[in-house]
From TrEMBL:
Species in which this protein is naturally found: Ignelater luminosus
Superkingdom of the source species: Eukaryota
Localization per Swiss-Prot or TrEMBL: Endoplasmic reticulum membrane; Microsome membrane
Protein name (Swiss-Prot/TrEMBL): Cytochrome P450
GO MF annotation terms: heme binding; iron ion binding; monooxygenase activity; oxidoreductase activity, acting on paired donors, with incorporation or reduction of molecular oxygen
InterPro entries: Cyt_P450, Cyt_P450_CS, Cyt_P450_E_grp-I, Cyt_P450_sf, Insect_CytP450_Detox
Gene3D superfamilies: Cytochrome P450
Residues noted as binding heme in the record, renumbered to the chain: 442
Length: 502
């Protein structure tokens, strides 16, 4: 190789490097020009270097920045793109509720070409389709429908207890895995009308597919993070959000179930019944066919499976570390079960301390550590000089807010009393956001809580939870996923209560 060739190659590489550097740093004066404080960005990565190199989770990084900045809002750069992070309670209320008409979509890419099912799931779909779909899906979550689905959920919780009976002699069981099996079974039966049998068969198709959805592999992490921050790359590579085999599985199972149900005209009080009803009453405002329909059942899984099982598992984790809180929770379960003579929808609804536990778990472990919205039109932030430009992504830093000592004294402490009737009034409305807020909040909140509370009540009524040698204290979090998860799962001892069972 001649020296002139090496020199030319070097010049070429330097020129390309320089152009890329300029391209990826061209916006780095954006917040400076608008007088908005911001952390110093790194070329190519912006403020996401630690996240993109999987050294930390988005939640922990956002919390760190939340603590660093004392201003009502601050800017960050996600790669080269400016994002606004809003801390102030009144401003959060404006974005989520008062001025929702300007913040109705999320930032995650919705692309039919890359992933038709994901693009049409309620969490992802953009306006105007979102408005129509949300109205269509809202009746699925009324108390009447929840109550009708209760027997299906109850059956799944019994499967879990049978499993525990067979395995609780072990010195340690993985609580996250048990909760994931339970929520897989619940969602499969409620949304797809199918018995997933995750407890009976470790390798059941549903269980294996669900595991694949949120595995911590590099390829899953790359796909999912890219949907939020590298939409152009997703479009270029035509990536689906979940692996293609996951989507094919759901599409196939869904249509088989619909066809069978339409043929047999059977009713199960599940989502499939409701979807068939929707298909039979066509609505001109939206094309409700093909993958748009599959997306609504799939959404139960994508948005409900991991969130519900994580919340339940983190609650079990805290209870195994706090015997007093656990005893109080068990006492309530026993009292209410004897009043209602067993596990009923009404019994679960009446468990107030159980509700406090879930509120505190979701404060300490918010499954989605931040909320995001896109600014639809130039918008002047109330009582400030800042005009947020159309298209700017806005984050609400949930994990930072949930650990802010102004709202929660000793934020690291697990203390359900914060949510007692006397105390909960002291928490500002937008300082507890595990289910988001405003018209685009979580549609499945009541369903998720019902499933989690029933599962936990079943376990507490028959098992004592104890820390085992492999229970991780303190927790280390998985960095290769968007949601909050322990790196090593949540193993603990499930000890059968012999004399005192309900
Ligand atoms: C403990 C369990 C759950 C937690 C912590 C949770 C949390 C959340 C959060 C934080 C959001 C974003 C809200 C916002 O941006 O303001 C959300 C949205 C959503 N969740 Fe949940 N969720 C849970 C269970 C469920 C379940 C069981 C389902 C379905 C059966 C579900 C379906 C959805 C859907 C469809 C959305 C998007 C709503 C929309 O854009 O209109 N979630 N959830």
């Amino acid at each position: 190789m001649s020296s002139s060739f090496i020199l030319e190659l070097l010049i070429l590489l330097l020129t390309v490097g320089f152009i890329l550097y300029k391209l990826f740093t061209r916006n780095f004066d954006y917040w400076e020009k608008r007088n908005v404080p911001y952390p110093k960005p790194t070329p190519f990565f912006g403020n996401y270097y630690n996240i993109m190199t999987f050294q930390t989770t988005i939640g922990h990084d956002i919390k760190k920045l939340y603590d660093e900045f004392t201003t009502p809002y601050f800017g960050i750069f996600v790669l080269n793109k400016p994002h606004l992070v809003v801390k102030d309670q009144e401003l959060i209320k404006s974005i989520l509720v008062k001025d929702f008409n300007n913040f109705y979509d999320r930032t995650v890419l919705s692309s039919e070409e890359c992933d038709a099912i994901f693009a049409n799931a309620l969490f992802v779909v953009r306006n105007p389709d979102w408005k129509v779909l949300r109205a269509k899906m809202t009746p699925v979550f009324t108390s009447g429908k929840m109550k009708a689905m209760f027997p299906l959920i109850n059956d799944a919780s019994l499967e879990m207890i049978t499993y525990l009976e067979q395995h609780s002699s072990k010195s340690s069981l993985e609580a996250k895995d048990i909760c994931a099996k339970y929520s897989t079974d619940v969602i499969a039966t409620c949304a797809f009308g199918i018995q997933a049998c995750s407890f009976k068969n470790e390798n059941s198709e549903f269980r294996v597919t669900c595991k694949r959805m949120f595995d911590f592999s590099f390829s899953s992490a790359f796909r999912q993070v890219s949907y939020f921050i590298l939409p152009d790359l997703v479009k270029l590579l035509r990536l689906s959000f979940f692996k293609p085999e996951v989507m094919d599985f759901f599409r196939d199972v869904f249509w088989k179930t619909i066809k069978l149900r339409e043929k047999t005209k059977g009713k199960r009080n599940d989502l499939i019944d409701i979807i068939i009803q929707m298909k039979e009453q066509p609505d001109n405002s939206i094309d409700f066919s093909g993958d748009k329909v599959v997306a609504q059942a799939f959404m139960f899984f994508a948005a409900g499976f991991e969130t519900t099982s994580s919340t339940m598992a983190f609650t079990l984790y805290e209870l195994c570390l706090s015997p007093e809180i656990q005893s109080r929770a068990r006492a309530e379960v026993k009292e209410i079960l004897s009043k209602y003579k067993g596990f009923t929808y009404e019994a679960i609804k009446e468990m107030k301390y159980m509700h406090m536990l879930f509120c505190e778990t979701l404060r300490k472990y918010p499954v989605l550590p931040f909320l995001d919205r896109i600014c639809a039109n130039d918008y002047k932030l109330p009582d400030t000089d800042l005009v947020v430009e159309k298209g700017t992504p806005v984050y609400i830093p949930v994990s930072g807010i949930h650990y802010d000592p102004e709202f929660y004294t000793e934020p690291e402490k697990y203390d359900p009393e914060r949510f007692s009737e006397e105390n909960r009034g002291r928490i500002p409305n937008f300082a507890h956001l595990p289910f988001g807020g405003g018209p685009r909040n979580c549609i499945g909140e009541r369903f998720g809580l019902l499933v989690g509370k029933l599962g936990l009540a079943r376990i507490l009524s028959e098992y004592e939870l104890e820390r085992s040698l492999d229970t991780p204290v303190p927790l280390e979090y998985e960095t290769k996923c968007l949601i909050l998860a322990s790196k090593v799962g949540l193993p603990m001892k499930f000890k059968k209560i012999l004399s005192d069972a309900v």
